[in-house]
Structure formats: C-alpha cells, structure tokens
C-alpha cells in the first residue's frame, strides 16, 4: 500500500522539519513547499491527503489558504495551520481564510496523531 502524502508549507526550520519528521514516523510521505504563492498549484498537481501550513512565514499565507479553499480541485483538502504560541492573531486569520484547524506549533507537534484523526474523519 502506498503511504499517504502530506504537504507541509514552511520556511522556518523548526517546527517545519520536526513536523515533517513526525509525519514520516507515522508513515506519511511528506512534500515540503516553501513558497506560499505555489501552495494551491502544488496541492492541485500533487494531490496530497492533507496540508500543514506554517503561518509565521513572510508573504500572504492566509491568502494562499483562501485561494486553496476557493479552487474546486483543492477545496476539499483539510488544512491544518499552525503558528507560534505567542501569535494567536495568526490563528484567527487562518480560520477566517478557511483553515480547518488552526493550532499552536506546540500543539501540532504534541497532538499530531489526534489532529490527523480529526482532520481525516469522514462523516
């Protein structure tokens, strides 16, 4: 069986690489993306199971989430956005942009299996 693909957008080495390593430990293939402008096109081309987005990077990250959620080919993808614990405004902005979950970077690492289960839960 093929391992599911998780796309991770990040520029900061920590926690981005830590998250990618944890996903690999959980038997996910990981595709790292480091340009917010390419997020929607990369997701459409690579068809990941879900996306993780580091909000604490330069550029219009929330705009990239909104574009991703507005495209028919990618609107169904669960998006888990994360930011430093000291940046709750980024989390609020991500939810307004359409992220399914917006959590602190501590929570995304500490509670990754639970977040994956919730993000991939089918009703």
Structural account:
- This protein is α/β, with parallel strands linked by helices and 123 residues long.
- 45% of the residues lie in helices and 20% in strands.
- Strands 2-1-3-4-5 form a five-stranded parallel sheet, sandwiched between helices.
- The model has no long low-confidence stretch (mean pLDDT 92).
Provide the low-confidence segments as ranges: none
Number of helices: 6
Radius of gyration: 13 Å
Question: Largest sheet at a glance?
Answer: 5 strands, parallel
Query: Mean pLDDT across all residues, rounded?
Result: 92
Short description:
This protein is an alpha/beta fold and about 120 residues long.
Keywords:
123 residues; alpha/beta; 6 helices; 5 strands; globular
Itemize the secondary structure elements and their pairings.
Blueprint lengths: L4 E5 L3 H13 L3 E5 L5 H8 L3 E5 L6 H10 L8 E5 L4 H10 L3 E4 H6 L1 H8 L4
Parallel strand pairs: 1-2, 1-3, 3-4, 4-5
Helix pairs in contact: 2-3, 3-4
């Amino acid at each position: 069986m093929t391992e599911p693909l998780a796309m991770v957008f990040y520029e900061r080495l920590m926690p981005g690489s830590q998250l990618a390593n944890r996903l690999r430990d959980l038997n996910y293939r990981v595709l790292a993306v480091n340009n917010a402008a390419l997020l929607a096109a990369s997701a459409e081309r690579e068809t990941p199971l879900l996306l993780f987005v580091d909000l604490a990077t330069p550029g219009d990250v929330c705009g990239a989430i909104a574009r991703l959620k507005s495209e028919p080919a990618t609107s169904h993808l669960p998006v888990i956005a994360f930011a430093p614990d000291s940046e709750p405004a980024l989390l609020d902005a991500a939810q307004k942009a359409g992220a399914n979950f917006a959590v602190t970077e501590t929570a995304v690492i500490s509670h990754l299996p639970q977040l994956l289960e919730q993000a991939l839960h089918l009703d």
